[in-house]
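Input (structure):
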């Protein structure tokens, strides 16, 4: 009887072991398959993300998370441009050499030079005006002995605060100034006042362009 019970128990135990072993054989491959699927899915997602983000970074070099990088890049670009313009100027037939300020004066009005090159700005200094000094200053280009071209008019009024200013002489399709030749030559700054008239200020614009300003004096019409 005992032997018979032992045989039955042994068979049950063997069957149990066999079933568990089979389960283990089944579970292990399933686990491995699941692991592989997870890894492949993860790698696929990473690849998709890289493809989505990489073009955005490479196609937009001006976009940066660091403002300091953009500022440094702009400063370096400006320095490179200045260096390039200086090299061109030094190697040109007629290099530009800045002249010292002379301060040509008519009453309370002064301009800083008697000669300018294309691209240089005229600095107008207005000293203390009397409160009754009112009128118009007119920048004019001398065409010939009988004709002038009025480039710009500006009012002045001694009863109000006056500010010094810079004026650039440039091409203008609206004014009919299409080529730099039309700007080169003799100019005058005239003053028409209500209480009297100040002497005019004479200056000249030379047939030479400030280095780096060449593109602004290409023909426009």
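Output (sequence):
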């Amino acid at each position: 009887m005992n032997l018979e019970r032992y045989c039955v128990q042994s068979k049950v135990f063997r069957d149990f072991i066999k079933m568990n072993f089979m389960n283990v054989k089944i579970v292990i491959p399933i686990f491995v398959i699941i692991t592989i699927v997870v890894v492949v899915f993860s790698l696929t997602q990473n690849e998709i993300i890289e493809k989505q983000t990489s073009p955005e970074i490479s196609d937009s070099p001006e976009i940066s998370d660091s403002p300091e990088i953009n500022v440094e890049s702009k400063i370096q670009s400006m320095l490179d441009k200045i260096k390039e313009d200086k090299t061109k100027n030094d190697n040109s037939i007629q290099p530009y050499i800045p002249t010292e300020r002379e301060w040509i004066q008519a009453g309370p009005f002064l301009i800083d030079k008697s000669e300018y090159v294309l691209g240089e700005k005229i600095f107008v200094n207005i000293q203390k005006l009397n409160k009754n000094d009112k009128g118009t200053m007119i920048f004019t280009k001398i065409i010939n002995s009988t004709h002038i071209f009025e480039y710009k008019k500006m009012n002045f009024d001694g009863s109000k605060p006056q500010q010094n200013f810079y004026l650039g002489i440039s091409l203008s399709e609206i004014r009919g100034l299409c080529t730099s030749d039309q700007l080169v030559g003799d100019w005058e700054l005239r003053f028409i006042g209500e209480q009297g008239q100040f002497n005019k200020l004479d200056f000249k614009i030379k047939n030479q362009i400030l280095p780096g300003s060449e593109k602004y004096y290409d023909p426009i019409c």
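Notes: The helical segments are 2-59, 67-91. The beta strands are 104-106, 109-111, 115-118, 121-126, 134-142, 148-157, 165-168, 185-193, 201-209.
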